[in-house]
Amino acid sequence: MKKLSLLIISLFLICYNLNSIELIATKDLLASYLERDSDLKKLTIELQKVKLTYESVKIERGFDIQLSTGTMTFRLGADDVFSVNPSLSVNLPQYSNLGIKVGSKVNVNTNEETGSGVSDTSINLSMDILSSSKDERNIAFLKAERSILEAERALAKKALEKEQTFYRNLSRLLSEVSSIISAQQDYYDDKISFEKIKAQGYAKTSSTYRRAEMQVLGDEHDIESDERNLFNDYKIFYLECGQNLDLADLNDYIELIPSDIEIVQPLNVHDFSPDDYAETEKAIWTNKINQMTREAAKDYSLAASAGYTLANSKTNSDTVGIGLEGTYGGVGANLNLDFPLASDNSNPAITMGITVKPNTFKKNQISAQLEELSAEEEKIAIDNARINFATAAKEKDLELESVLWEQSTNSQNLELYKSLAEDMFKWYKQGIVTESEYLAAKINMQKSSVSQIVNSINMIIYNSEIKSMFVDSQNK
Description:
This protein has helices at 6-14, 26-35, 38-61, 133-199, 207-240, 278-296, 358-429, 435-469; strands at residues 64-68, 73-75, 81-84, 87-92, 98-109, 117-130, 300-312, 317-328, 331-341, 349-356. By secondary structure, the protein is α+β, with helices and mostly antiparallel strands. Strands 1, 2, 3, 4, 5, 6, 7, 8, 9 and 10 form a ten-stranded antiparallel β-sheet that branches. β8 and β9 (331-341) form a beta hairpin. α3 (38-61) packs antiparallel against α4 and α4 packs antiparallel against α6 (278-296). The longest helix has 72 residues, at 358-429.
């Protein structure tokens, strides 16, 4: 087992983490750990996909243009004939689903008598007077925006979870260090006992002497074995962070203790809005968007259309047409009026139709009842979320009390052990105490120092867990 020289011991009392190997800064190690995490990479890709879907929804929310050649006809024979029905359609969903369509028919004929020409040129307008389509599109847009927000939150929460895993792994390594220190403490206690036995004059062949000696040798073996395991675990930890750890110049396992763990102030769970508690916020959003969907779902609609056709081939004149179409419950009706202009027959043509679906009324009543029940479920979900927050907040209060108590206790113990180690070092140089007695005191100081670092890590983990409980809390 390796021992520190007196010079190194003196320096340790001044700065116990002065290392002969260069450890990577903890924050850089964490950044490397997060950068290579596959879960975070997947969530980043998922966020990009959601943003692309959002862009698609934005396009649908704007205006739509369609150009068409219509049916093209070719007739080959004595009289070559070519006809086409081009059209232009424009739809403006945000303006009461306004639609505009312009079309025509073009004939090209090589027969001079028949000739070529343009006919049936028309312009048609349509729009919703009473409809839920605009509200439905707005809801779809809000859901698309929410999808981005939830994807961003999922990525941020996963990053916090990975940060917690990183620090828990580091804390586990420091627990191994603490275990070795405890083993060294047992070693020095056994060695002191062995030295007393030797001072009492026991023969080397006596059972008392041999048992004490074997106990010391066993302690040395256990420490060496634990150190090997610690070194391997540290190397694996670094590999998980995408880094290599060279321990060729390592003098003592104590050098593996990080000295740059950030000291953070604890977050107070009550400084956050209860409505920002992740479960509560989601329940409130779900109720809000579902209520908007329920209010947007109307059992009636009314749409109007109007059009003008130049040189209508059916009437050999210009025509004007208007139409109405509506629904209420299970009843649907439509009315269309066509007026020929500048024609011998100027009487309008009226077409109408009515449809009745009796089952629709019953289905609408059932749907209304289902919506009421769904609204009640959503309110229950909100209430449960608030109850869960109250429980979680209380648990975090108790956890914080424990962490702060450990912090205070460790700080006090460290000061006492440092003072004792300094005194024991002086007495050791004066020959008042043995080396083993001094080293036993130094071990207590080392163990307390590690406990203090672990406590700082626990505070970081605690803060990260608090952030994970709330939405949009990463900047707090």
